[in-house]
Amino acid sequence: MVRTTPPRPFDVDDVIPGLREYRAGATRLHPRAGAPGVADSSIGGPLLWPADEPWPVCDAGDDHEVDTLLAPATVRRSREIRAAAAGRSFTAAELAELPGIRFSEPEELARQSIPMIPVAQLYRRDVPGFLGPDDTDLFQVLWCPLFHAEDMTPRIRVLWRRTADVGEPLTAAPEPPVVEEDHLPNPCAVHPERVSDYPYREILPEPLRARIAAWEAQTGGPGYRAWSVVPGWKVGGHPSWRMTGPGTMHCRTCGTEMRLLFTVGFGEWDEAGWWRPIEEPAGDTDPMTEVVINRGFDWYLFHCPASFDHPIDTVMQ
Ligand SMILES: [Zn+2]
Ligand SMILES: [Zn+2]
To answer: How many domains are contained in the chain?
Structure first.
């Protein structure tokens, strides 16, 4: 099903002269629970992976910080139970099946090699504005589903492929014995939509900020913050810098200013319903992937525009 972001209630480029040149294309992914396969673009779905290529693992071992370790199957079943019980109390049978609030699998399970888990898989054909090396058509993100001492975000692996090179595909990816629930995405189909994205206000030059302030004072409507940076899981576009204040990222290899590649979004829309696609009823709750980065932040992956071979960098906001 197509998902359509409602248009901003005015022509932004018209009401704030000069803003147009800072506009960027972004692709909202609109992840929604589904049953994607390896041939589909997805969040939290299975990856198209060569059978003869080792699956990435995290060997942080003792550096894994344990909060609540659960088997992936336990997390999936708990989510099913919670979804089925929405709006009512749990039955005795459901309560008996849910893990107790203090329950955690043995810590030793976090000390071994942990297979990473699929987070995103995007085919170039599905994603307008796909970002990646010219000769590739598949973007994949995996991460370690555990916490790491002193890291507030997961350890990730980002890669691009040519599907023509995959050959015999892996039929069943290894699963980690345990995960932290916040790092296990629900399998979601994606519904990519190209939109316009505008920078975080404090990134803009002063004359433009003054024009925005004047416009806000004049209209009294929802301010720039409400409609500038597109929220949720997206490809490209602009990041919000709401936690640290304005910032830029520079490539560790060549120093070039980096650009936003991919966003692991916390929410798809706010309480006022801004950004809720017109196809979805007003009563619908924010359809989260169930991924929570450090209690509710957006996580931004940046790439170097000089070369996709240069390392990805990340920032949490
Ligand atoms: Zn790890
Ligand atoms: Zn670079």
So the answer is: 2
